[in-house]
Amino acid sequence: MEHAVVSAAEGVIHTLLGKLGAIIVQEAQLLGGVRRELQYLKDELESMTSFLQDISERDECSKKIWKKHVREMAYDVEDCVDEFKHQLGDSSSGGGSGPAAFFCKTIHILQTTRARHQIAKQIQELIRRTMNISARNSRYSGNHLIYGAARNSMGAHDSQANLLNIDTRITALFPERRQLVGIEPRQENLVHWLLEEHVQQLRVVSIFGFGGLGKTTLAMTTYQNLSARNGPFQCQAFVTVSQSFDVKSLMREILLQITQPVNQPAVAGKGPLEDLLKGMEAWNVGQLASILRQQLENKRYLIVLDDIWSITAWEGIRFSLPDSDNGSRIVVTTRIRAVAHTCCFHEYDQAYEIKPLTDCESRDLFFKRIFGSTICPEQLKEISAKILGKCGGTPLSIVSIAGLLSSKPVHSKDLWEKIYSSLGSELETSPSLERLRRILELSYNDLPYHLKTCFLYLSIYPEDHNIRRKTILRRWIAERFVTERRGLSVFEVAESYFDEFINRSIIQPVTTSFTGKVKTFRVHDMMLEIIVSKSIEENFITIAGEQHNVFPQEKIRRLTIHSRGVKYIATREILCHVRSLSIFANGELLHFGWMKLMRILDLEGYELLRNRDLNNLCGLFQLAYLNLRRTHITELPTEIGNLQKLKTLDIRDTSIKHLPPGITGLPHLANLLGGRRSYNHTGRWPISEFLGLHVPKRLGNLDSLTTLAQVEIRVSTSHYISELSKLSRLRKLGVLMFVDDDRTWASLISALEKLSGSLCTLLLWRPDGALNFDVINSLPIPPIFMRSVNLRGQLRQLPWWFLLLSNVTELTLRATELSAQEDLKVLGRLPSLLYLRLHHSAYIGTEFVVLAHEFPSLRLLVIHLSTFEAWKARFEEGALPKLEKLELSLFEEASIQEISGIEFLPSLKKVSIRACRSNMVNVEQIAASLMADADKNINRPIVTFEEKQWVPMRSRTDPPLDHMGNLLSFDDV
């Protein structure tokens, strides 16, 4: 587990080194003698970082305590530096040079004398700690050498013991077929691709997915099935690549296997090439590759390359495997998505993402391993469901935990409950779970240190929590885990980190947009147990929850609360070093004023939060991320301008209407997220109205803003809107217009024109009226870089510049009342459009015709029908070539007369129809017709329909609600 120390400590130290360097340069005049001490600390920490990286490669357990001391000292140095910057304030406020500037700087020095003396004393103490840590390390490193000889004398014993742990995946190479579950359907796919006769070129089939899903087992069982003496392949080889691969050893192993008759073990000294291979150790890679190609040339072969971790490993072996156009095959298994797709270079190659076992398959495997049959005692059904939920359909987890349970002398509900609640500690200590732990840790240990830090951070979330991608990116940035790189913003770098986790199959996407972006994700429960264990052990995260003992042994740096009952840690001494606080359960609210170094405060969904609880909020001078979403807060503190480091303010779904004037004094605020739903319960059903934040004066001062959503305009004035044009970095904007005078609309269009070079996402709603078409149509410079557009309000026809939105991938229209086929043709010519939603009254024409070559990239089409006339849709052959899903919803008395042409949509997978009870008869008739057409489609799409209860609407422009009173769709930001 020492890798966790390295990741946590290095993440802190790298951030700190940059900060120390900046202070030494910028505050030279104020530092005086302290500058020399800070330079010493910086040099020491650089040396320690280098040493940490070195020992992380060697994984020396004897350095564990030393690494812990280095990490804690780095945290304390950073805390000291942060307080230093805060207490000294802005030493350059005088500006310029000359007597006036000298006088201002002198006054500033005198005013901060006491603070500088206090900081000097802290730095001296930190230097003493640094010297003691270094001395202790040197002292015990000497003793370590003495003990080394004694340990070497035990080498024979250790090597004997370690023989059992050479390859934690070894049992997957020799599967017991009778105990396997769910292998047949997966194997059928694999065998089909391997034996497909019409593909005579060398085909590569890559199997990829999360560790423990059975990739190696699937590859091996298929390999064994195809190893018959008269089988389809003339020679075969199965080799394990692993993280530390040796190309020469791999080639040698393949040569030894292919020179043996198929299905016969290799026997030393009896192979036809044995004499030739005796001098193989002296050969270089080129010589080995040459003879390997000679042996495989003109033969139909099957090579399995198991457990590839890098593209380099694939490229190192691929060039030695020839293509003789005779149906040869290569099977690759990997956890890395990019490796899988790189291996599948040609169109006839196949990348296969292995999926978890179904619930039924999981139960069968679990019970067979414990009881020898699929029958479970009644009293164990409930707890077994909980255990299987934690396994998440991964065979390795199921088999490992089943092995642990089967080793117990009795099978009682109480015992199984106890094991379930202590799986985290069992993973660390139980021999039955050692293989599972090692397999999961392979993925973690392969991460570079900066990704380890970000991945450990996911342990703040409770089990089964769906995590929003954008939320975690903003939190990483606020924690300073991410820094800008040349040509990339800090947010883009954070996105690259996240994409790497997806690439490595180390997190599980839950919802994904049709643009391919993961919207929410989860951490597999067993992987979460691994990183929680590492985080707690290395004091990276402190968890307050039913399954975690949180009584602090060290200073709390990051606190996450999963359940009630935290009174015993609610003291100033314990909380004064907290950097982030995340609350996922209602209960006692901790005192913010004690957490003066806090960077992240996440109170989303905390129902007991009230305005008075935020009284001490504005003293948190390091606060960079504040999330009050879905709380009962009605106003922000007036002193919010004191939060000079604040980057993200999330107040969505609160009752906050007005922002305090001080909000415009936040120089680093990048994300201002507001907007809420308001319900009117005067009638039988609640009526929903969407509201935004009132635009503050001097909004243009927030020149770091990249996201502003949602703000509302209720006053007929151009002054507030003109402030938008000053936000030169703005990428996402949401505006709700409640006024309709030409001057205000003209100001908005002028602002959009000035933002056209940066704006990528626009939400523009007129909730209770018409969008001003004449003004919108007059936009002289269209936002050509726009990727997402969401418009609500009457337009009647599309603006001319829609034709130029060549980069738009998502388009949502509501109540626009388009009716002309020409408007559909405009939308159909957008080359990048992936996702089109035509919500209530967006299109009111009675015919919806899509011609050949229209909508060339569209994958999802959503249409909500509210017209009282019978509606027709026709899709001509050649239209919508990439459409995967068609979703129709019928409101009020809307009816469908005909839908034709779905048999021509080659990528269609699903047609979904939703309607209220009054028009279900019509829907059932249409669904029957669609099913008949679906049978003619090469893809055989699924047709589904369901009854839905809709909430009555106040007017034609109101969005439809489901029976729970929720808006059917609203774009999250």
Automatic annotation (TrEMBL):
One of its GO terms (biological process) is plant-type hypersensitive response. Gene3D superfamilies: 1.20.5.4130, Helical domain of apoptotic protease-activating factors, P-loop containing nucleotide triphosphate hydrolases, Ribonuclease Inhibitor, Winged helix-like DNA-binding domain superfamily/Winged helix DNA-binding domain. GO terms for molecular function: ADP binding. Keywords: Coiled coil, Leucine-rich repeat, Nucleotide-binding, Plant defense, Repeat. Residues 460-531 form the Disease resistance protein winged helix domain. Residues 577-942 form the Disease resistance R13L4/SHOC-2-like LRR domain. CDD domains: RX-CC_like. It comes from the Eukaryota. Residues 12-93 form the Disease resistance N-terminal domain. Residues 187-371 form the NB-ARC domain. Belongs to the disease resistance NB-LRR family. PANTHER family: DISEASE RESISTANCE PROTEIN RP, OS07G0599100 PROTEIN. This is Uncharacterized protein.
